[in-house]
Amino acid sequence: MLGSLVLLCFGFSLLFFLFRTRRPKNFPPGPLPVPIFGNLLQLNLRNPIEDLEKLSEHYGKIYSIYIGNKPAVVLNGLHAMKEALVTQSVEFAGRPQDLMVNHISGSKGVILADYGPSWRKHRRFALMSLRNFGLGTRSMEERILGETLYISLCLERSVGKSMDPQCLFYNAACNIICSIIYGSRYEYENEYFQAMITTMEENSKMANGPWAMIYDAVPLFRNLPLPFQRGFQGYSSVREHILGIVAQHEKTWVAKETRHLIDCYLNEMEKQGDSDICFDKSQMVVLLMDLLFAGSDTTSNTLRTALLYVMTHPHVQERCQKEIDEVLGEKEQASFEDRHMMPYTQAMIHEAQRVADTVPLGVFHATTKDTRLMGYDIPKGTLIIPNLSSVLNEESQWKFPHDFNPSNFLNDQGEFVKPEAFMPFSAGRRACLGEGLARMELFLILVTLLRRFKFVWPEDAGVPDYTPVFGITQAPKPYRLGVRLREKPGE
């Protein structure tokens, strides 16, 4: 009797699931989901990129999968990405609100907030504040070059040896953001600074990892003491630290002064008063954490990828150094404007961004209204996965889609060109607001380091492994960086 009852309940549950997961009329096709998990069991949860590509080969550039009982549409290739994120930018500008990353952040700030008035105001505020702090000007260059001096000092201690660059570049990228948001930097050996960086790295790996996918797919598991709870704890610890910094700066805040981003936000709160409830302290903290997490992780991973490839492609490194020497001559420091006279170095940096594929699945979108895409009907609220990796490696868009080759960004005359398929920062209304800062950081840091140092693959390091470690932001596998001092031209 009990066995029959269990079977009956299971049968009803299965029927309920099948009813809930029936694809809407004219919805993009996709594989048949299974109860509870949807299509997750058909993906390698540690790195689903290859499986998503195989599904695209079978179902086309737009197809659907189920995350638990929630349908998601996966976009592949330049045409689909442009049609959705650029041509229909408003219709695809939303954010899903029932995922682990949203629950961790409370869906506030600018990265994970849903499309609407609060998001628009905070994005506009963040962009204006970055411009006010000198983005694209000499003052921001000096901030970046000042941190690059600390990188150089660390590398000098490893001349003639090899070192692990992972912490070094995370430290530097994080400090540049810290100098903008609260006006100070940390010593690299600072105990709390290192704990904060470790927490941010772990959360990044978890955000698109197996446990996050299980959290998203099976709501019944969310309150269990499973590893995804570490993501909430880690975010909370960084949040408490930033709240403490905000409290300290509030004590010394003087209206209309702008020492850093916290001052800017406090000024905005006073200006808005009670007329705009969008600006409050909880929103400010999440905005600061958005900039801290996103700006540190992506830039540091791209820097490590760039050095991995130039170190293992010495002819590329030498050509960049020759160009840098010719352009800079006796100048003490590089400036961002120098990029216009360095087409090959520019091409190398962009190629490093392409192969780094730092945010392979972007940040998930959601449709803000019922819409159509390439002949399919997409209901309002549908989760959208932009497979940016498929664009950065699309064979029809690149001369050398599967190799590291700066020629992907050079025309027949050797001039720098940026193909339309270059989308490491996504595209449209939800494109990364830190793109301008990241471009300055990558150029100034890499040019400064290549001018002073030669990077060599250590003799005892074996064969280079370029396979990235998947996460919401991808990173190169740990490696050792061989460091040598360069002789100055003419010596």
TrEMBL record:
<keyword id="KW-0479">Metal-binding</keyword>
<dbReference type="GO" id="GO:0016020">
    <property type="term" value="C:membrane"/>
</dbReference>
<dbReference type="InterPro" id="IPR050182">
    <property type="entry name" value="Cytochrome_P450_fam2"/>
</dbReference>
<dbReference type="InterPro" id="IPR001128">
    <property type="entry name" value="Cyt_P450"/>
</dbReference>
<protein>
    <recommendedName>
        <fullName>Cytochrome P450</fullName>
    </recommendedName>
</protein>
<dbReference type="GO" id="GO:0005506">
    <property type="term" value="F:iron ion binding"/>
</dbReference>
<dbReference type="GO" id="GO:0016712">
    <property type="term" value="F:oxidoreductase activity, acting on paired donors, with incorporation or reduction of molecular oxygen, reduced flavin or flavoprotein as one donor, and incorporation of one atom of oxygen"/>
</dbReference>
<feature type="binding site" description="axial binding residue">
    <location>
        <position position="432"/>
    </location>
    <ligand>
        <name>heme</name>
    </ligand>
</feature>
<dbReference type="GO" id="GO:0006805">
    <property type="term" value="P:xenobiotic metabolic process"/>
</dbReference>
<keyword id="KW-0560">Oxidoreductase</keyword>
<keyword id="KW-0349">Heme</keyword>
<keyword id="KW-0503">Monooxygenase</keyword>
<dbReference type="GO" id="GO:0006082">
    <property type="term" value="P:organic acid metabolic process"/>
</dbReference>
<dbReference type="InterPro" id="IPR017972">
    <property type="entry name" value="Cyt_P450_CS"/>
</dbReference>
<dbReference type="InterPro" id="IPR002401">
    <property type="entry name" value="Cyt_P450_E_grp-I"/>
</dbReference>
<dbReference type="GO" id="GO:0020037">
    <property type="term" value="F:heme binding"/>
</dbReference>
<keyword id="KW-0472">Membrane</keyword>
<comment type="similarity">
    <text>Belongs to the cytochrome P450 family.</text>
</comment>
<dbReference type="Pfam" id="PF00067">
    <property type="entry name" value="p450"/>
</dbReference>
<dbReference type="InterPro" id="IPR036396">
    <property type="entry name" value="Cyt_P450_sf"/>
</dbReference>
<keyword id="KW-0408">Iron</keyword>
<dbReference type="GO" id="GO:0005737">
    <property type="term" value="C:cytoplasm"/>
</dbReference>
